[in-house]
Amino acid sequence: MDTPLREPTFLILTALAAQPMHGYGLIGEVAALSDNRVSLRPGTLYGALDRLVDAGLVEVDREEVVDGRLRRYYRLSPGGETTLSTETERLRRNVEAATIRLSKRTRAALPTTPRTAGGLA
Question: Which of 22, 52, 70, 89 could, after both became Cys, cross-link 58 (CB 3.0–4.6 A)?
Answer without folding.
Answer: 52
